């Protein structure tokens, strides 16, 4: 097997070399604006912010913007890696791009470049300017790079142009119609079969801060420029500050692992001319070449899969040796991890792997022997509250499965250690975005709405659609996790309450949650119902619209502030200034829904099912809200948590 594997590698390397012989990489830089002295404060600020970009773009999911310095020497920077990037490739590409700008635009006010890493596995954009360009369509300057080779003039160029134009339309559609919940939206990669030519590859990408209409405009401008100046060349690219366009007769940029493949157009009648014979001969050789390459790839993939599953079996054996199954009444099972495996996965809970800390303990990143990434929640030793949370979370999450709920993989209970093991959610919690001055700008209204709707669907599942009826009791932004595609996942079920099937409300003397998010009937009288969660959801919805913490409105709280502005007819004052260019009517509709959720009278609050219906309808008349509970007495700490207790209540630290 070793000799076969080596042979495959050699043959694939030879084929790759043949392709690379026809490839010339040019990393052109666009420079505009005034000149600065090389030792100026502006240039120093630019170089300083450039030094942070490779790490920052990876930490922020492939797209990042920031600024540094004070006017008139303030520098704005934006960086983007192509969707599907490998972290090291992205890092290397951004590092190369910043070096290229400093070399080619050492003292210019504005600059940008779409760079490629050394092995052409990923493209990336680095842009700097003296004014903020975030959210603005930037078309100039355009950097052009046509292929030095021309297309065979004996070919049917009329037919080629028709098929090429059709491919352009499909690629633009794929890019502007991509998943808008992703931080790296606006990406299209297509491979198409042509009637008289070998396959054509096309890639388009826009920065995710602009609208889909502006992305369409930018990409069309690139295509038009190429056709006007370089039509007849065998490929090429046009770069603009807000978008990237490239096409060729071979794959590039590692973009075609998840490519959309278009079949060849319907066959057309052909004569017996020399051109037709040459076309058929060329296609025959292309077919043979494709067959040979696919054969090698199949052999390579088969060998790789055999080795992969062999390693996986070995890794799984490592897990199974020291595990038990925790069985629940519904027949589902959960993995019980041994402490030794947890210590190995987290490198003995090293500080380098620490993701965060709360009142009940710390959270560390870990990697299991099979390569799976996990988040490990280590509860504080000797904490009675932690023990209660531990048992509660294991009991509930074992039986809950929903795309908008965090997934509990297993637990560990050895000696005085109590540990919960979750799926790793890469983008941390919602509060790290919505309450951060820089990262909040990544949350467009469309993305905020999708997050809000996802949270609502997670709550609906808990309240009505799961096999259990669960009241969360501590819904807030820090308990909403965001995955790599920015999909929300409700987390932290330590204080959740299980209801019987026919039970609608209950009372408790133990009040657990976060002040400011707790419904008045629950905080003051211990009355729990699904409407308690609806109240918390309403507060969080208003936070998403305003971009401000509930406790930022001292003396009254966000719900009371929003209600006063609503009564005054000035509800726009609640809206985050970053959203003022977005559909105000839709945002105002959600302010109204948020106020309905925080009404003082729990019976008047909507169910989560009704909230979701309102979200999706433009014709249903939504009732007017009544006044919320005034929360001036609900003092909070900076992060919105509380730690107060008396004879009848016990308030959980978070």
Mean pLDDT: 78
Overall CATH architecture of the largest domain: Orthogonal Bundle
| Overall tally of domains | 4
Task: Supply the number of helical segments.
Answer: 15
Query: Rg, please?
Result: 29 Å
Rounded to the nearest angstrom, the distance between the terminal CA atoms is: 55 Å
The fraction of residues assigned to DSSP E strands is: 15-25%
Helix content: 25-40%
CATH class of the largest domain: Mainly Alpha
Number of DSSP E strands: 24
Walk me through what this model shows:
α4 (157-176) packs antiparallel against α5, α10 runs antiparallel to α15 (608-615) and α12 (530-546) packs antiparallel against α14. The chain has 654 residues and is an alpha+beta fold. A hairpin with a 5-residue loop joins β20 (480-482) and β21. Mean pLDDT is 78; it is low at 5-27, 264-284, 311-333 and 631-654. It has helices at residues 2-20, 41-59, 87-104, 157-176, 212-230, 274-320, 339-345, 384-397, 431-434, 445-465, 520-525, 530-546, 557-568, 584-597, 608-615; strands at 29-35, 63-68, 75-81, 108-116, 123-129, 143-146, 187-192, 200-206, 236-240, 243-248, 260-262, 324-327, 333-336, 354-358, 361-367, 373-379, 408-414, 417-423, 469-471, 480-482, 488-490, 497-499, 505-507, 527-529. Helix content is 37%, strand content 19%. It contains 15 helices and 24 strands. It has four domains: 23-133, Killer Toxin P4, Chain A (2-Layer Sandwich); 157-268, 2-Layer Sandwich (Killer Toxin P4, Chain A), CATH 3.30.430.20; 326-423, Phosphorylase Kinase, domain 1, CATH 3.30.200.20; 431-615, Orthogonal Bundle (Transferase(Phosphotransferase), domain 1), CATH 1.10.510. The longest helix is centred in the middle third of the chain and has 47 residues, at 274-320. The strands form six sheets. Strands 12-13-17-18-16-15-14 form a seven-stranded mixed β-sheet, with helices on both faces. A six-stranded mixed β-sheet has the order 6-9-10-8-7-11, covered by helices on one side. A five-stranded antiparallel β-sheet has the order 1-4-5-3-2. It is a single-pass membrane protein. One of its GO terms (biological process) is response to abscisic acid. The chain crosses the membrane at residues 285-306. InterPro entries: GNK2, GNK2_sf, Kinase-like_dom_sf, Prot_kinase_dom, Protein_kinase_ATP_BS, Ser-Thr/Tyr_kinase_cat_dom, Ser/Thr_kinase_AS. Keywords: ATP-binding, Glycoprotein, Kinase, Membrane, Nucleotide-binding, Phosphoprotein, Receptor, Repeat, Serine/threonine-protein kinase, Signal, Transferase, Transmembrane, Transmembrane helix.
